[in-house]
Amino acid sequence: MSQISLPFEWHGGAEDGDFLVSDANAQAVAHLERWRDWPLSVSVLIGPPRSGRSTLARQFVAMSGGEIIDDAQDGDGQGPDEHRLFHAWNAAQTERRPLLMVGRTSPAGWPVALPDLRSRLAAVPHVVIEEPDEALARALIARAFDRAGASYAADVPDWLLRRVERSYGAIDAITQLLDRAALSSGRKISVAMAKEALQSAGFLPIVPLDPPPQQRE
Prior knowledge:
Elements: E1 9-11, E2 18-20, H1 26-33, E3 42-46, H2 53-64, E4 67-69, H3 82-95, E5 99-103, H4 115-123, E6 126-128, H5 134-148, H6 156-161, H7 168-185, H8 191-200
Parallel strand pairs: 3-5, 3-6, 4-5
Antiparallel strand pairs: 1-2
Helix pairs in contact: 5-7, 7-8
């Protein structure tokens, strides 16, 4: 399968913004785009928090006219709403209207008691949004600053990329922290300012800092 590389953007509604596509999520995007070819009328989309899985699901509805069940594995706060999932599954097959269930983990790990629903979930195709690769992580850092209107030095995204956990949650937390620090101090986000703010908040050192120039090869 060919991979869609940045800066391709799958455009949804204005309230959703753009969904950035890289190797980390291109397979999921391609699967949703081919909804007419699904062997069943149901698929499951899984991904970590802040990965854009709900945004992607809403864009899928706009494209296909289908239905989504977000947070399907934890619909009532205590586990899946099994009767809702079961009836939605059957309706999707009867009406041939695509149904996308969205969750954090594979359906195999969902605490489902209904045998008929368990067997259906075992058969359903599911696709995964992986944690961001380097290209996507860099783009997410820059986009977070741009959306917040934060002024930042051009070398900050690459500097952060080498030092923070490469996860959607960490990127979201750190960019919000730096934006707040910039607003409260009136300073531009530079490497020095970012280092100071992240160390004060306990985010650094996560990985070793740059070695002294004489130690670099």
